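Hi all, long-time lurker, first post. I run a small reading group and we've been trying to get comfortable going from sequence to structure in the token notation. Rather than ask abstract questions, I figured I'd post a concrete chain and ask someone more experienced to write out its structure so we can walk through it together at our next meeting. Sequence below, copied exactly:
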Amino acid sequence: MVSAEGEQLGVLPIAQALELARQGEMDLVEVAAEAVPPVCRIMDFGKYKYMQARRQKDARKKQTTIQVKEVKLGPKTDTHDFDFKAKHVRRFLEEGNKAKVTVRFKGREHAPFHPRVALDDFVAEATLGVDTTPHPCPLP
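-- Answer (accepted) --
Happy to help. Here is the structure in token form:
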């Protein structure tokens, strides 16, 4: 048995423990039911639940969600369009989000002689100051 102040009261009969809880206008809460003898605590259970909900609400408020923003390019993307999209990727990374760059290949663009690696190098170069972990492009 543990009191509201955290003092050990020892092993008490249930009736006596309930009477102590009622005298302090508190609740008798079973803390460890598996222990022999079971451990109970005198506390204000409503206040306990309220404080627990407040802690969870504050924890949710402080956590940040990281979104994965995606930018799609083609192998024939012009330099101006590429620079425009690279600026977006830099902004996504600076805001703390993750950025995913997808290169779409259509028709004969899948041929092995296409400059895929050059496009990957351009992306790595465009995010040089911001990107912390560059991932190479997986080639099929």
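A couple of things your group might point at:
The beta strands are 27-32, 39-43, 68-73, 98-103.
The two ends are 66 Å apart (CA to CA).
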